[in-house]
Specification:
alpha/beta, about 35% helix, six-stranded parallel β-sheet, 5 helices
Length: about 230
């Protein structure tokens, strides 16, 4: 009899823990940031540094070779749907920036468009086709590589081009390593992935006029009219 009671108690305890963990897991789901390296998978190590900074701040981020963009898009769309349409964010450098644009287009075609796409000096893909989302392009027009992004047919998002020609000490091979730009990108990502606070109820204005009762009920008295005997 005692063993049966202990078994029931254990089941109840497990059920309580499950109920507590599920909402917590949902609250911790902050989307996924996919970072794409450029040529030969060795010239864009700033992507690794940026991913490490994001993970240290509780933002799930992984680094990939740019040629994986198609399979990554399929996996990202499936993961997002499995987690309540969690936000997808893409960051890429050089050829990885080109791949970020292509990945965004594929995700949009799959019905899971990215929320944010950040490109560092795209070199070949200069036009964003059928896609949606917010695109931020950090580039230099004077370093022989970087390109400006433009909207193509079917584009339904927003593009912000940031020309960094005047930023000293930056070129195509280290633009993705800039601590200053890393902080800007992290701020943009956190605005999307941070849990949104629940709206507070509007406070009641104590000075707001209230309607006077139109009829008396047992235990109450109608408000006296101005000038009437009290």
């Amino acid at each position: 009899m005692k063993s049966g009671l202990r078994f029931v108690q254990a089941l109840l305890a497990a059920f309580v823990v499950f109920c507590l963990v599920q909402p917590a897991a949902a609250q911790q789901n902050r989307g996924h940031v996919y970072l794409l390296r450029g040529l030969a998978n060795v010239f864009s190590l700033g992507m690794d540094d940026l991913a490490a900074k994001m993970n240290a701040r509780g933002i799930p981020a992984t680094v990939h070779e740019y040629g994986q963009w198609a399979s990554l898009a399929n996996a990202a769309a499936a993961e997002s749907r499995a987690n309540g349409n969690a936000p997808i964010i893409i960051v890429g450098h050089s050829l990885g920036a080109d791949a970020a644009v292509e990945m965004a287009e594929r995700l949009t075609a799959l019905g899971a468009p990215p929320k944010l796409v950040v490109t560092f000096d795209p070199v070949g893909v200069t036009q964003v086709g059928p896609s949606s989302g917010y695109f931020v392009n950090y580039y230099q027009s004077n370093n022989g590589y970087g390109k400006r992004l433009t909207a193509g047919a079917g584009f339904r998002g927003n593009i912000v081009n940031r020309n960094l020609n005047a930023l000293g000490g930056v070129d195509h091979f280290n633009i993705e390593k800039s601590p200053r730009l890393h902080e800007e990108v992290i701020t943009q990502v956190r605005s999307i992935t941070a849990p949104k606070p629940k709206p507070r109820p509007k406070p009641v204005d104590p000075a707001a006029p209230t309607a006077a009762p139109t009829a008396t009920t047992p235990g109450t008295q109608a408000a006296a009219k101005p000038g009437a005997p009290g």
